[in-house]
Structure to design on (535 residues):
């Protein structure tokens, strides 16, 4: 749907025909039984928000808007690319039990917002009233950011930064590559989804190549000067895949200027790289629902009050997960779940007329450096009233001599716990 | 008062010390604590719903309060080492450990 028709549709909705939905007085939520909470999005943040609301407020009326019947997990998709996991393992049907537990699933896409009347506009030509709205739009790509790379080009040159056919395409290309071939991966500047993800991907692709095509090479063209868990990744690469992975920093010539898909070549400031397999991870922004609802600012991401995750642009609307700006938290699955739970608690407090307590946020993200070794990064976060932002209360990463095998076992346990918390 | 204390070096030094301590205490003032349910949710991300344990992650709901508190304090001070808990424990305060222990043991983590 293009913006014009959407706007037309919104005007039609605003114009009438839906007055029946205004029987609730939006400003007088006396108790949570009458309160209407709408959650938009069926990714990690969205589902976690629904589940946490059901846990802390069993009598709450929750409407959950998600067009799909299943979710494809992004965490774990690097393992699919390297043949360590099947794509179907990432696919999870949404639990049917939500409805019986108080969250009604509405199978539609949210396409707009009427903030004055507090209604979410749905693709089914209906409007859903809310007292509090939680939106978890995920990410989208800035298709215009790289000369020569757009949505059409991505059908042959994968980004594989959302799990699905893209993941399979990259895996197929990696399998078909000749021994001695070159994989070129381009990595955008921060912020983007899953900061250590490109380097985990390089590690696991290297694991695959070392075994099946040992004369090959992976070149990472990075638009950054440094990267997440860098020293740990580099130590593991030296140990497991010497000379197989070459990381090119921004200062060297990491910044891609343009791409020629027909020639499978990437051009930088200083030269060009011809690839047998090209993996372009494009610059990103908040998912399209965020722009349809006008929740994103000029940065492309959604500014929020970190105590409640309420949008600073539109009151009574909360944004969680990769789409929100929750600096210094990274955009990770773990962080998204933590944000969702804190947001749910804050929404409950607000509906009950209480002042929300400060948030307690955490990120702990694992990266596999080979199938049975992992490294991790930890951050805990609280809100500082003086600085009016989230601050790091503790942080750290796997020690140089840390037990990477134990971390890999933890990583798998966490992944199982994550899936269980979302889909069981 | 300012002149008086300047003429009295020990008092001045004492005040200075007090001021320094206060200033230091101010930077160390504990942040207002989140409600325990919010902190507990950070544990549950790995240790499962209500801290009942999940895969490699042990149950924390079955620990007695004193064992829970001691374990967290030992992780925080690096008295015992662990794969990841030393790093995580440093993000919390001693009162959090007490409240978490109670949360998981007495209420069984039910909110």
């Amino acid at each position: 749907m293009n913006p014009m028709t959407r706007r037309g549709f919104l005007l039609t909705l605003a114009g009438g025909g839906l007055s029946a939905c205004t029987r609730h007085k939006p400003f007088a939520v006396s108790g949570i039984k009458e309160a209407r909470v709408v959650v938009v999005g069926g990714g990690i943040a969205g589902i976690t928000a629904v589940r946490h609301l059901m846990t802390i407020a069993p009598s709450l009326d929750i409407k959950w808007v998600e067009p799909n019947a299943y979710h494809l997990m992004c965490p774990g998709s690097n393992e699919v690319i390297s043949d360590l996991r099947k794509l179907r393992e990432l696919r999870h049907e949404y639990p049917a039990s939500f409805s019986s537990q108080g969250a009604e699933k509405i199978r539609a896409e949210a396409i707009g917002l009427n903030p004055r009347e507090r209604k979410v506009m749905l693709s089914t030509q209906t409007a859903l009233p809310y007292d509090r709205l939680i939106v978890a739009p995920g990410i989208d790509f800035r298709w215009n950011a790289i000369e020569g790379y757009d949505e059409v080009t991505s059908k042959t040159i994968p980004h594989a930064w959302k799990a699905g056919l893209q993941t399979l395409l990259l895996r197929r290309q990696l399998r078909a590559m000749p021994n001695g071939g070159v994989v070129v991966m381009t990595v955008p500047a921060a912020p983007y989804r899953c900061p250590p993800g490109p380097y985990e991907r390089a590690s696991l692709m290297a694991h695959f190549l070392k075994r099946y095509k040992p004369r090959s090479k992976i070149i990472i063209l990075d638009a950054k000067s440094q990267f997440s868990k860098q020293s740990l990744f580099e130590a593991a690469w030296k140990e497991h895949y010497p000379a197989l992975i070459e990381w090119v920093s921004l200062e060297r010539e990491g910044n891609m200027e343009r791409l020629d898909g027909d020639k499978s070549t990437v051009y930088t400031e200083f030269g060009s790289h011809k690839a047998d397999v090209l993996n372009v991870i494009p610059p990103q922004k908040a998912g399209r629902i965020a722009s349809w609802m006008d929740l994103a600012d000029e940065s492309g991401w959604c500014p929020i009050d970190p105590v409640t995750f309420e949008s600073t642009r539109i009151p009574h609307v909360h944004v969680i997960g990769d789409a929100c700006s929750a600096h210094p938290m990274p955009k990770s699955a773990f962080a998204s779940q933590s944000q969702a739970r804190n947001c749910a608690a804050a929404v409950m407090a607000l509906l009950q007329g209480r002042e929300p307590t400060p948030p307690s946020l955490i990120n702990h993200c694992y990266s596999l450096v080979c199938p049975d070794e992992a490294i991790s990064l930890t951050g805990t976060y609280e809100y500082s009233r003086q600085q009016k932002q989230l601050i790091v209360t503790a942080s750290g990463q796997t020690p140089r001599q840390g037990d990477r095998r134990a971390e890999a076992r933890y990583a798998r346990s966490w992944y199982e716990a994550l899936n269980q918390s979302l889909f069981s | 008062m300012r002149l008086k204390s300047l003429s009295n070096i020990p008092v001045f030094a004492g005040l200075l010390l007090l001021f320094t301590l206060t200033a230091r205490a101010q930077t160390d003032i504990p942040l207002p604590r989140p409600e325990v349910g919010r902190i507990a949710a950070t544990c549950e991300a790995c240790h499962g719903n209500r801290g009942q344990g999940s895969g490699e992650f042990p149950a924390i709901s079955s620990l007695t309060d004193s064992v829970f508190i001691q374990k967290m304090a030992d992780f925080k001070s690096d008295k015992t080492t662990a794969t990841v808990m030393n790093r995580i424990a440093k993000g919390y305060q001693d009162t959090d450990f007490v409240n978490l222990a109670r949360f998981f043991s007495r209420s069984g983590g039910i909110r």
Notes: Chain B has two domains: 1-30, 36-106. Chain B touches chain A through 28 residues (CB under 8 Å). Helices of chain B lie at 2-7, 9-28, 36-47, 65-76, 85-89, 94-106.
